[in-house]
Amino acid sequence: MPGSPGREPLNCRDESFVDRNRAELVQRVSSVMPLADVLMSRGMLKNEPYSEIQAERTSQAKMRALFRFLKGRNQKVAFFHALKKNEPFLVEELEGERSTN
């Protein structure tokens, strides 16, 4: 339900942003665990995948691992909103690049 605390509307634009910008996100997101924390707190990421992400040594490897577990629209939308909160300038930049292409 729109406007409900803790609930994002399912938005195809948000999901496509994640899919479209995967390579850039892998290279440029530096704080991966806060994003994984959000997904875990919402029950979208279980303990074993979380531990696999955490065990990776570099932020790029952590992002690749996180992407392996982003399967459905709900997860991608939640990831997008966590990304927008934690890395707002990166999201703005990538959205700006999309609108100029």
From TrEMBL:
Ranges for domain CARD: 10-98
Chief localisation class: cytoplasm
Cytoplasm recorded as keyword: yes
Localization: Cytoplasm, Cytosol
PROSITE patterns in the record: CARD
GO cellular component, one term: cytosol
Keyword tags: Cytoplasm, Immunity, Inflammatory response, Innate immunity
Domain of life the protein comes from: Eukaryota
One of the GO biological process terms: inflammatory response
Annotated InterPro entries: CARD, CARD8/ASC/NALP1_CARD, DEATH-like_dom_sf, NLRP_Inflammasome
Protein name: CARD domain-containing protein
Native species: Astyanax mexicanus
Classification lineage: Eukaryota, Metazoa, Chordata, Craniata, Vertebrata
